[in-house]
């Protein structure tokens, strides 16, 4: 084998090992050609040369493969966390709607009272969903509620003597 064939073989081996480690082990949906392309492009931009033919191919390729692999894993984790957060927000909104419906029937409320709730009601909804295994965390809804107040899903109608007695109106989105 001549030197170029050895470097091509080394290049392929480094790609395969890193693909196995980063992509296959983490069960990411990335084709080996896409991984190879990302590594190859970053290598060329950073070192201004092709990997095959570079005397420092081993150290440089491993470094770049690790960078690309870490980025892909982090992106996948970020996507999963965002999806889980969106599901939890949707679940929270459904629970709020159920709570408001039940409260309006029990107290024979009409609009706008049937769209209002206190901050302490969020804790009640949260406790019910936690006890019935709808949610995994004890305090999952409090944070979501505060975020959604900031985003305009809930509007403060009347501050109470204590924060838990603040009255909010559920805004139709």
Protein topology:
Elements: H1 3-24, H2 32-47, H3 57-106, E1 116-118, H4 119-131, H5 140-151, E2 154-158, E3 167-170
Antiparallel strand pairs: 1-3, 2-3
Helix pairs in contact: 1-3, 2-3, 3-4, 4-5
Explain the overall architecture.
- The protein has helices spanning 3-24, 32-47, 57-106, 119-131, 140-151; strands at 116-118, 154-158, 167-170.
- The model has no long low-confidence stretch (mean pLDDT 91).
- The chain is mainly α and 173 residues long.
- It folds into 2 domains: 3-81, no CATH class; 110-170, no CATH class.
- Helix 3 packs across helix 4 (119-131).
Q: Report the count of strand segments.
A: 3
Strand neighbour order, sheet with most strands: 1-3-2
Q: What is the averaged pLDDT score?
A: 91
Total DSSP helices: 5
Q: Over all CA atoms, what is the radius of gyration?
A: 27 Å
Would you list the SSEs in sequence order as H and E? HHHEHHEE
Structural domains: how many: 2
- Helical fraction equals 55-70%
Shape: rod-shaped
Largest sheet: 3 strands, antiparallel
Low-pLDDT runs of 5+ residues are none
Structural class by secondary-structure content: mainly alpha
- How far the N terminus sits from the C terminus, by CA atoms, comes to 68 Å
Strand residues, percent = 5-15%
Compose a concise summary of this entry.
The chain has helices at residues 3-24, 32-47, 57-106, 119-131, 140-151; strands spanning 116-118, 154-158, 167-170. It is mainly alpha-helical and 173 residues long.
Question: What tags apply to this protein structure?
Answer:
5 helices; three-stranded antiparallel beta sheet; 7% strand; 173 residues; mainly alpha; rod-shaped; 2 domains
């Amino acid at each position: 084998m001549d030197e170029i064939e050895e470097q091509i073989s080394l290049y392929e081996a480094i790609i395969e090992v890193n693909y196995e480690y980063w992509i296959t082990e983490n069960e990411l949906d990335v084709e080996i050609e896409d991984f190879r392309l990302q590594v190859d492009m970053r290598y060329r931009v950073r070192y201004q040369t092709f990997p095959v033919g570079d005397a420092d191919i081993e150290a440089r390729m491993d470094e770049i493969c690790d960078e690309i692999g870490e980025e892909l894993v982090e992106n996948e984790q970020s996507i999963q966390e965002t999806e889980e957060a969106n599901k939890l927000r949707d679940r929270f909104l459904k629970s709020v709607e159920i709570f408001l419906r039940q409260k309006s029937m029990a107290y024979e409320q009409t609009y706008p009272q049937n769209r209002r709730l206190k901050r302490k009601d969020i804790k009640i909804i949260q406790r019910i969903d936690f006890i019935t295994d709808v949610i995994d965390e004890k305090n999952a809804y409090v944070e979501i509620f505060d975020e959604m107040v900031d985003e305009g899903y809930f509007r403060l109608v009347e501050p109470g003597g204590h924060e838990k007695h603040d009255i909010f109106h559920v805004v139709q989105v």
